[in-house]
Amino acid sequence: MPSESADLTIRPAAAGDADQLAALFWAAREAAYPAMPRTIHTREEVGHWFREVLGLEPRTVPMPAERETWVAERNGDLVGYAVVDPRWLDSLYVRPDLTGTGIGGALLGLVKGLRPAGFGLWVFETNTRAQEFYRRHGLVVVRRTDGSDNEERAPDLEMAWPGTE
Question: Which of 57, 41, 112, 60 is nearest to 82 (CA)?
């Protein structure tokens, strides 16, 4: 389901994208601090996770077989990505210097097309910018937690898109 909008191309991630995906994740998380807590994982662990997701290394933790990773490219540069499970948007990140340029919206539109029955996601309570982005795109808050179940131990919100079906 590749799509193009002006100079943006969205395609399935390839094995060779793993290092760029890890670098983008790291840059986005650092740029989002303090709205998002810093990741508890090292750069090496993040790289390993992406290599597992893309099938380059054996999986050390259970992952859904149906997990899909999509990348957004502009002029040949990786500028965003989405990791989608059967019922969850695991992650969606855009290169920090390009937030607000439509890349996140294009990726979220792809996810909606891939999951027409709907999906959920988690967002940190302090990440109000991401919450507003998801609300603008039709997601609603379905529950709040104290964060005791996430790695960062930070309060979060479960948001959901109800789907079109």
Answer: 112
Task: Provide the domain count of the chain.
Answer: 1
* Residue 107 lies in domain: 3-161
Residue with tokens 């992952």: 63
> 161 pairs with which residues across the strands?
119
State the CATH number of the domain containing residue 19: 3.40.630.30
pTM of the full structure: 0.89
Query: Looking at residue 6, what is its pLDDT?
Result: 63
- 135 neighbors 101 (Cβ within 8 angstroms): no
User: Which residues lie closer than 8 Å to 117 by C-beta, 6 or more apart?
Assistant: 163, 165
User: Cα dihedral sign for 149, 153, 156, 161?
Assistant: negative
d(CA 102, CA 106): 6
